[in-house]
């Protein structure tokens, strides 16, 4: 399998991919067209923030299974498009948080003491001691907008500097605020009270322009603002006006609405300082994120373990080998239900009992849906199957039973149809071998593999002979033959594994046999 590293990344990433037996190309700085030309060769793409993973690029990504972001922000990756293409997107949410928090603190000091301007003036031979009067941080109020990983670290450092820390974050619980030693406030209070404001939220529809002209007007006169999160959180034109008017005494931006920011009306404004998206740029952070992204991507490609995925449930390296056989079973049950009930399905319930109930149910449900949705469209996998199911209006529920039934472990898939609920269930023999044990109310024991036939007929002597003769005439060899029935003379079910698929004509002949109620050609 092949990996493309398309942004500048610590060499440890490539080393790890190679140590794990994956081929790697390091091609940072490609244009979008160049990237589109080569992306089809790769199974994995490792990026930082420079590569734009657009829907147009993904149209060319025929083999891509995973995109790994060596860093936190994934706003350069079109997650919805990646999900539609069945590509897992993962990031490294903690590897650069300390480094970025330290950059925010460095920016706060730089603003408080006008370090960049004082440095430039001194090195220009001026000795403007009285021009660069600063402010102390001790006793000042720092307003955090966003108190997640980075915001929390900034808070702890600021408390160490004897600042008062207040935080606006709708998802911050009172308990967590207490633990962090910060006061949870609403945005208007933060604006009214903070001497320094630092932003640490992702860029979303709710946070875009969170510091716009209105918000800046509500801020304390002389406030100093730091943004080491994402460009777009601050309205840059409004910030320029607020700096010019003196409403804002200083602003330090590491990130810009349009990057790389080769020009900006803010450049040269007194009180404004900037760095070129350096928040995560320390040796330590870059080694951390490179190692983490390479390990996560390799684990996924080689063992199916899913860590820090944005568009798929997690599955640890320990869980992966235990869950994997269930995923095979679940996918087969999904295929069986999809191929036999098709368009009639209104909702799906996935139930687990016995050993299966102790496992992470999400990947099992994902596999059921991948099998089921695979009956309706090509290139379905666990990433895009839930989306496709949702698009189809399929309601999906999960139930975990604590009791053990007739089997030590069981996965049951029930489809609600206009004729009522219809269930199939399977178990694992010897912990690894999936077996169907129930099909629509009939007990059976069958391996779901290759081309198969599902036949429902009225239980009567002579039927099996007629069936064998019909298949023989069509030159179809029977690999395994599994039978089940509810009662003598009632409906009987046959699941027959065949060595070659049955043609339409053969299916028609089978349907014409006496007592046959239903014939479905299946493929696993
Ligand atoms: N400059 C850099 O180089 C650099 C480096 C790393 C991370 N970042 C950026 O920093 C930001 C924060 O990263 P993190 O790891 O702390 O993320 P995080 O997910 O741990 O924290 C984000 C916090 O923002 C809060 N939030 C979400 N919506 C909000 C809203 N409308 N108002 C207020 N708070 C809201 C969330 O509740 C969460 O607590 C991200 O945008 C990330 O991309 C930048
Ligand atoms: O979200 C992040 O992790 C930062 O913005 C870092 O971006 P970078 O990897 O391009 O430095």
TrEMBL record:
Gene Ontology biological process terms in this record: L-serine biosynthetic process
Catalytic class of the enzyme: oxidoreductase
Domain D-3-phosphoglycerate dehydrogenase ASB: 322-439
Domain D-isomer specific 2-hydroxyacid dehydrogenase NAD-binding: 105-279
UniProt superkingdom: Bacteria
Signal peptide range in chain numbering: none
CDD domains, sorted: ACT_3PGDH-xct (cd04902), PGDH_4 (cd12173)
Keywords assigned: Amino-acid biosynthesis, NAD, Oxidoreductase, Serine biosynthesis
Record-annotated D-isomer specific 2-hydroxyacid dehydrogenase catalytic domain positions: 3-311
InterPro entries reported in the protein's UniProt record: ACT-like_dom_sf, ASB_dom_sf, D-isomer_2_OHA_DH_cat_dom, D-isomer_DH_CS, D-isomer_DH_NAD-bd, NAD(P)-bd_dom_sf, PGDH, PGDH_ASB_dom
One Gene Ontology MF term: phosphoglycerate dehydrogenase activity
PROSITE patterns given in the database record: D_2_HYDROXYACID_DH_2 (PS00670), D_2_HYDROXYACID_DH_3 (PS00671)
UniProt keyword NAD, yes or no: yes
Pathway assigned to this chain's UniProt record: Amino-acid biosynthesis; L-serine biosynthesis; L-serine from 3-phospho-D-glycerate: step 1/3
Catalytic activity from the UniProt record: (2R)-3-phosphoglycerate + NAD(+) = 3-phosphooxypyruvate + NADH + H(+)
Gene3D superfamilies tied to this protein: 3.30.70.260, D-3-phosphoglycerate dehydrogenase, domain 3, NAD(P)-binding Rossmann-like Domain
Known EC number: 1.1.1.95
Family: Belongs to the D-isomer specific 2-hydroxyacid dehydrogenase family.
Name the UniProt record assigns to this protein: D-3-phosphoglycerate dehydrogenase
Species the sequence originates in: Sphingomicrobium lutaoense
């Amino acid at each position: 399998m092949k990996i493309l590293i398309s942004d500048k990344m610590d060499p440890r990433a490539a080393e790890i991919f190679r140590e794990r037996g994956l081929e790697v190309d390091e091609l940072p700085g490609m244009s979008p067209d160049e990237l589109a030309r080569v992306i089809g060769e790769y199974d994995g793409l490792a990026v930082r923030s420079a590569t734009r993973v657009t829907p147009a690029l993904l149209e060319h990504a025929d083999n891509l299974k995973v995109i790994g972001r060596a860093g936190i922000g994934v706003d350069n990756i079109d997650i919805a498009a990646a999900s539609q293409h069945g590509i897992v997107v993962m990031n490294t949410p903690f590897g650069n948080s300390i480094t970025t928090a330290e950059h925010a603190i460095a920016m706060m000091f730089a603003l408080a003491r006008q370090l960049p301007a004082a440095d430039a003036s001194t090195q220009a031979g001026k000795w403007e001691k009285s021009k660069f009067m600063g402010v102390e941080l001790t006793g000042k109020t720092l307003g955090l907008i966003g108190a997640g990983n980075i915001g929390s670290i900034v808070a702890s450092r600021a408390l160490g500097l004897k600042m008062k820390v207040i935080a606006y974050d709708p998802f911050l619980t009172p308990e967590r605020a207490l633990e962090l030693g910060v006061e949870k406030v609403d945005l208007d209070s933060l604006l009214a009270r903070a001497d320094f404001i630092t932003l640490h939220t992702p860029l979303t529809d709710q946070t875009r322009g969170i510091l716009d002209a209105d918000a800046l007007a509500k801020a304390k006169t002389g406030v100093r603002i730091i943004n080491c999160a994402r460009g777009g959180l601050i309205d840059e034109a409004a910030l320029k006006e607020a700096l010019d008017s003196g409403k804002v005494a200083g602003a330090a931006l590491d990130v810009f609405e349009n990057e790389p920011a080769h020009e900006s009306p803010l450049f040269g404004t007194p009180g404004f300082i900037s760095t070129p998206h350096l928040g995560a740029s320390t040796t330590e952070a870059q080694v951390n994120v490179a190692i983490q992204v390479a390990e996560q991507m390799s684990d996924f490609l080689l063992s199916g373990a899913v860590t820090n995925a944005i568009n798929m449930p997690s599955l640890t390296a320990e869980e992966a080998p235990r869950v994997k056989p269930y995923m095979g079973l679940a996918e087969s049950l999904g295929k069986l239900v999809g191929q036999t009930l098709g368009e009639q399905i209104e909702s799906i319930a996935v139930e687990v009992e016995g050993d299966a109930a102790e496992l992470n149910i999400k990947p099992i449900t994902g596999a059921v849906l991948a099998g089921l949705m695979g009956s309706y469209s090509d290139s379905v996998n666990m990433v895009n199957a839930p989306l496709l199911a949702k698009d189809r209006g399929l309601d999906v529920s999960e139930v975990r039973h604590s009791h053990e039934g007739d089997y030590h472990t069981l996965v049951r898939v029930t489809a609600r149809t206009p004729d009522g609920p219809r269930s199939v269930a399977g178990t694992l023999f010897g912990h690894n071998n999936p077996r169907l044990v129930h099909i629509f109310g009939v007990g059976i024991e069958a391996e779901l593999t290759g081309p198969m036939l599902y036949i429902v007929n009225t239980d009567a002597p002579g039927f099996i002979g007629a069936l064998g003769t019909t298949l023989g005439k069509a030159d179809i060899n029977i690999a395994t033959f599994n039978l089940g029935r509810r009662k003598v003379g009632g409906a009987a079910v046959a699941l027959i594994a065949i060595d070659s698929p049955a043609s339409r004509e053969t299916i028609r002949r089978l349907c014409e046999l006496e007592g046959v109620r239903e014939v479905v050609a299946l493929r696993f």
